[in-house]
Amino acid sequence: MSVFTIDRLGVDDVAVMRELLAVFAEVFEDPETYLSRQPSDDYLRRLLADPSFIALVAREGDHVAGGLAAYELRKFEQERSEVYIYDLGVRAAYRRRGIATGLVRDLQGIAAGLGAWVIYVQADPPDAPAVALYESLGVREEVYHYDIPVRPR
Questions:
Q1: Looking at residue 2, what is its pLDDT?
Q2: Beta-carbon contacts of residue 50 (< 8 Å; ≥ 6 apart)
Q3: CA distance readout (Å), 140 to 66, 80, 91, 129
Q4: Are 117 and 84 in contact (CB under 8 A)?
């Protein structure tokens, strides 16, 4: 049985962050978004240094098998925060080994340390494996998602 380690990326992990972008490009079949206009090393260092950005990778040895990117969102109505999972992906060859669950479990510990009261994530209904994963870990809410275009003032 393979042993996986899960690590939170830090400011010196720009190369690993780029590997995670490649994983997301592969898993989501979207190289345009994740590979065509990658940010500079300086941008990634600033992002990885930001405590409100959480990047976790699951590795087998030195190989990145999967990972997640999440954001802490500080609330204004109470002294607490929420954590939003923006992306979570595991390479096909590594699926069904508990990696995605392990990533979320690690995030739960990080979120608790931040004083977060909940972790939330969006899953699209056609993505049955993602829906099944999140239903095994949390409670589904029926919500609408809207993309509002940015426009100059």
A1: 64
A2: none
A3: 24, 21, 25, 14
A4: no
Strand order in the sheet with 53-60: 5-8, 53-60, 63-74, 81-90, 116-121
27-70 pLDDT per residue, tens: 999 999 999 999 999 999 999 999 999 999 999 988 999 999 99
Return the CATH architecture of domain 5-137.
Answer: 3-Layer(aba) Sandwich (3.40)
Bridge partners for 125 per DSSP: none
| Axis crossing angle, helix 99-114 with helix 128-137, rounded to the nearest 10 | 50
| DSSP 8-state symbol, 75 | -
What is the distance between the alpha carbons of residues 82 and 74, in angstroms, rounded to a whole number? 7
Nearest-angstrom CA–CA distance, 64 and 23:
8
Q: What's the CA gap between 52 and 99, in Å, rounded? A: 23
- Sorted by where each begins, the domain ranges of the chain are 5-137
What pTM was estimated for this model as a whole? Answer: 0.90
Cα dihedral 110, 10, 22, 64, rounded to 10, equals -70
